[in-house]
Amino acid sequence: MRYNRAVFLDRDGVLTKPLGDRPPWNLQELEYYNHSRRLIATITSRGYIPIVVTNQPDAARGNAPLASIKSVEHAVKEYLGLAYYYACYHPYDNLCACRKPSPGLLYSASADLNIDLSSSLLIGDRAKDILAGVAANCTTILFNSSQSERSKLFLNQPDYICSEYNSLASLLGSLLSSS
User: Fold this and answer.
1) Whole domain around residue 67: which residue ranges?
2) Spatial separation of the C-alpha atoms in residues 137 and 103, rounded to whole Å
3) In a 10 Å sphere around its CB, with 0-12 CB exposed, 13-18 middle and 19+ buried, how is residue 175 labelled?
4) Are 50 and 18 in contact (CB under 8 A)?
5) Maximal C-alpha separation, the chain
6) What are phi and psi of 70, to 5 degrees?
């Protein structure tokens, strides 16, 4: 049996711009990074499956209607040409197995799409993303993150750290071609 390889991507902070410390709650707030489409194109051209894995707790917390959050999700999938998108809508950590830092979203995608997690990568901008990737045995890349997020990692350091898109593109070029 042949296993697929994936690059798991956090949404807010990697593909889309957060609004301060929160994600966009509606289409008017949704803004993409300039590199988002190129990043997806690089991943697919190397034979990997791009998969968004994202925590989206704001409907459950009462901050935004779920319909608005789902419309943002749909717009991201359409704009980036994504077939696979896994989201946790639970409000807080430790209430489920899917909310990052738990690796449940990655495990679900692996089961659904026959993915070899040890041959896959995770790109995220927060400690929770990296912890999920480490738990799932993925190669992890901390991207576009603040020093405070880096300090939350302690012993679970990412495999790589990239502060801007050009260094990430270069790193992916070498990692995805050598796998």
Assistant:
1) 6-178
2) 9
3) middle
4) no
5) 45
6) -70, -30
Per-residue pLDDT of the chain (179 residues; tens, 9 = 90+): 678 999 999 999 999 999 988 999 999 999 999 999 999 999 999 999 999 999 999 999 999 999 999 999 999 999 999 999 999 999 987 889 999 999 999 999 999 999 999 999 999 999 899 999 999 999 999 997 666 666 676 667 899 999 899 999 999 989 997 54
Beta bridge partners of 49: 6
How far is Cα 82 from Cα 129, in angstroms, rounded to an integer?
Answer: 19
DSSP codes, 152-176: T-TT---SEEESSHHHHHHHHHHHH
Whole-angstrom distance, CA of residue 138 vs CA of residue 136 = 6
- Closest C-alpha among 172, 146, 100 to residue 159: 172
Task: Report the domain count for the chain.
Answer: 1
The CATH code of the domain that includes 137 is 3.40.50.1000
- Give exposure, 110-124, as e/b (b: 16+ Cβ within 10 Å): beeeebebeebbbbb
* Cα–Cα distance for residue pair 12/72, rounded to 1 Å: 11
> 1 lies in a domain?
no
